[in-house]
Write a structure and sequence with these properties.
The protein is built from 4 helices and 8 strands, in the order βααβββαβαβββ. With about 170 residues, the chain is an alpha+beta fold. Bound molecules: coenzyme A. Coenzyme A binds next to strand 4, helix 3, strand 5 and helix 4.
Length: about 170
């Protein structure tokens, strides 16, 4: 095991609940409480899934999977805000959360999954490319503010192979 790739942790991944609120806020202080509340609410209602990665009793990462997609592409759930605590990166947790998001989308019978990534975020782009995400062709745009600066992002999408889709009506 190289120093660049320490041993993977034995993390648990599960939907976030109200009891995780404080730890989620501490994980990424730049995120607004209102967005945490919205994500928890949409998880309770089943519109979306807010996942947390837990090491022991500590929240070390999260991702929000918005199941209802974008207006221009409503059938492809959107991965938002994949984020791992800086001290826990490079140990497979981001990969595990991404794999879980894809499994949820596939099992829900969705044909594809999408996300946006900063044009300068080469580490994350490498991860998504390895997983088969490709640029949608939408021109680069300002996706929001990241660490106080407007962030230029591009949209990526992964279309699931037909045999991989497991809709609720499937028999297998
Ligand atoms: C990108 C990120 C979610 C990856 O999570 P992770 O747990 O570190 O990832 P993994 O250990 O599963 O490694 C998967 C890949 O992520 C990327 N990665 C790993 N550590 C990273 C780091 N410290 N910084 C940036 N990217 C990293 C690499 O492509 C890595 O693959 P490689 O080691 O074969 O090159 C994480 O680094 C992170 O939270 N970064 C800040 C927030 C962010 O950029 N989120 C993505 C928004 S689209």
């Amino acid at each position: 095991m190289s120093a660049d790739h320490p041993a993977p942790l034995d993390v648990t991944i599960r939907p976030a609940g109200a009891a995780d609120r404080a730890q989620i806020a501490a994980l990424k202080p730049s995120q607004a409480d209102v967005s945490i509340e919205r994500r928890l609410r949409e998880t309770r209602s089943g519109e979306s899934v807010y996942l947390v990665a837990i090491d022991g009793d500590r929240v070390v990462g999260h991702v929000f999977l918005r199941l209802y997609g974008n207006p221009s592409d409503p059938n492809a759930p959107v991965i938002e805000d994949l984020y791992i605590h800086a001290g826990f990166r490079g140990r497979g947790i981001g990969t595990a959360l991404l794999v879980r998001c894809e499994a949820i989308a596939r099992e829900g019978g969705y044909p594809a999954i999408q996300l946006s990534v900063g044009v300068q975020n080469e580490g994350a782009q490498r991860l998504y490319t390895r997983f088969g995400y490709v640029a949608t062709g939408r021109p680069v745009y300002i996706g929001g503010v990241y660490e106080g600066m407007p962030e230029r992002v591009m949209d990526l999408k992964k279309t699931f192979a037909v045999n991989d889709r497991k809709g609720p009506s499937s028999n297998d």
